[in-house]
Amino acid sequence: MLTRLETYYDSVPRSAARAEEFGPLTLFVREGAGWPYYARPALGHGGAGEVPVEAVEKVRARQRELGVPEAFEWVAETTPGLRAAVEASGLVVHEHPLMVLSAEAEELPAPPADVTVRMVGPDDPHLASAVAAPYAAFGATPTPGATAQVAARLTAGLTRLASAFDPAGTALAAGQHQPVGPVTEVVGVGTRPDSRRRGLGLAVTAALVADARALGVETVFLSATDDTVARLYARLGFRTVGTALIAEAPEADTA
Description:
- Helix 4 packs across helix 5.
- It is globular, with a radius of gyration of 18 Å.
- The strands form 2 sheets. It has an 8-stranded mixed sheet, with helices on both faces. Strands 1-2-3 form a 3-stranded antiparallel sheet.
- By secondary structure, the protein is α+β, with helices and mostly antiparallel strands.
- It has 8 helices and 11 strands.
């Protein structure tokens, strides 16, 4: 399973980024608008030994040159030799449960009666609201061109978007999954602060899972924020299979 996920991790950024190779590491550089990408182990490097800190520092220098965040993402169990080098370079590593859908969902409560949860297409009049909801969840506003970029990815079949709407058509929560062949990752699920604790994030995730299954996707996975959130996803049938690691510069360096 981890090998299958590793192949996915290497494939999914390539639809919107170019890959720059740094020995045992690959830096994905976004081409066009949208969230910047990250560096990760080169496909096939895996457990091939320790990663030299010099390789990490070369990638960080390139990220600074490009003006993008100094960020790395990888799976602890697949590339155990990377963490020491990343931490030696001064980055901070965060751990997140890596979960794969492998069981039947519990019987979940229905969304509130005044909320509609559905998939959102590229021509949906409420697309911009659905794109904005996860940004609001993290106290941000959409980047310029974000709605157009999501619309293009929806049209190309690279992204699938689900959202929970109030009666006025305002998106209260939303999230995406990104299918590549038989695998997809649920990403960016977020609920507006004033709409939390209503089960909307879980309802959106359930809609994404149902859509992935309807598309014939075999493996659905996600990275949970922490163990508390992982327990919620377990209600949908997700089980922890590893640890997703995200490394970034300390706040003092990014302010």
